[in-house]
Amino acid sequence: MSLSLTDWIKTSGVSSEIGTVFELVAGCAIDIVDALRAAALAGDTASIQAVNVQGEEQKKLDVVANDIFLAKGRESGVLAAMVSEELEDIVVVEGSEGRLALIFDPLDGSSNLEVNGAVGSIFSVLDLGGAGPVTERDVLQSGRRQVAAGYVLYGPATLLVLTTGRGVTIFSLDEAAERFALVRDGLRIPEEAAEFSINASRRGKWYRPTADFIEACLAGTSGPFGKSYNMRWCAAMVADLHRILCRGGIFLYPEDEGTRDKGGRLRLLYEANPMSMIVEAAGGASSTGTQAILDVEPSGLHQRIGVIIGSKREVARATALYGKEG
């Protein structure tokens, strides 16, 4: 029998507090799986609830997933605060003696729901240290200070991917037993591959380095990289990066002319930082194009950023072009 998440936590050397957060996220994932299934049966996956703090359509399932995280977070006993993509302000956990913060995107890729596409949850864990009231400033930490990160991929199998910075471990949900079982430990991302992932509909807005990199990929064996690339795009960061983690490649959602005023499309604290921690722990790399994502000092809870992430050599090829800009 495969090692359960609970047993793995006992033997992996993670702290009891981090182990509690991992169990918390696993519990959220099980409840979200049930919610996704129920919504599909009711024909309610496309239902729009409102417009969220990001100015994006907020589906009913975004709210359901967010509420699940908040409820379990408040009950955990180890969290002092939470930050969600769906909420404008930090959530302080009243009466808790915990000093960890859980930063999360409860349902990444929710636009895929109405077509039964892959979606996920992404999370980051910060140590707030010390004591006293928690403020927004306390959670505005660079990605290097994350103590754990992970994601859940809701697909043909429900996968939980975890790291504390010392390797990457994958668990799969055994629905009959309602537990996550270890399926892969010590995941390493190939140093290079021949796949790229980008929203090509934004081509007319790309900066020159992005366009030059994609043109080089499409040039095939006669191009500067000397190999033929395939393109893949799932419209869910979790799904695209899980594929890249398993077989290599590069994911790009860089700043462009359409996102210049915001600094990019993806959010730093609960998308770019946790995924960068996971990818780097697996031997990959991540960058804005000019700076390592994990070195960026955040200026706000919902700060956006350009993202280039994946196999180390592929990221180096892309960022080398940014270095030539101008």
UniProtKB/TrEMBL annotation:
Hydrolase in keyword set: yes
Annotated positions binding Mg(2+) 1: E85, D105, L107
Names of the cofactor(s): Mg(2+)
Gene Ontology CC: cytosol
Lineage: Bacteria, Pseudomonadati, Pseudomonadota, Alphaproteobacteria, Hyphomicrobiales
PANTHER family in the record: FRUCTOSE-1,6-BISPHOSPHATASE-RELATED, SEDOHEPTULOSE-1,7-BISPHOSPHATASE, CHLOROPLASTIC
Fructose-1-6-bisphosphatase class I N-terminal domain segment(s): 31-184
Domain of life the protein comes from: Bacteria
Presence of the UniProt keyword Transit peptide in the record: no
Record keywords, A-Z: Carbohydrate metabolism, Cytoplasm, Hydrolase, Magnesium, Metal-binding
Sites where the protein binds substrate: D108, G109, S110, S111, N199
Listed GO biological process terms: fructose 1,6-bisphosphate metabolic process; fructose 6-phosphate metabolic process; fructose metabolic process; gluconeogenesis; sucrose biosynthetic process
Subunit structure and binding partners: Homotetramer.
Record's catalysed reaction(s): beta-D-fructose 1,6-bisphosphate + H2O = beta-D-fructose 6-phosphate + phosphate
Protein's UniProt name: Fructose-1,6-bisphosphatase class 1
Entry's cofactor comment: Binds 2 magnesium ions per subunit.
Pathway: Carbohydrate biosynthesis; Calvin cycle
Domain Fructose-1-6-bisphosphatase class 1 C-terminal: start-end pairs: 189-322
Enzyme Commission number(s) of this protein: 3.1.3.11
Residues noted as binding Mg(2+) 2 in the record, renumbered to the chain: D105, D108, E271
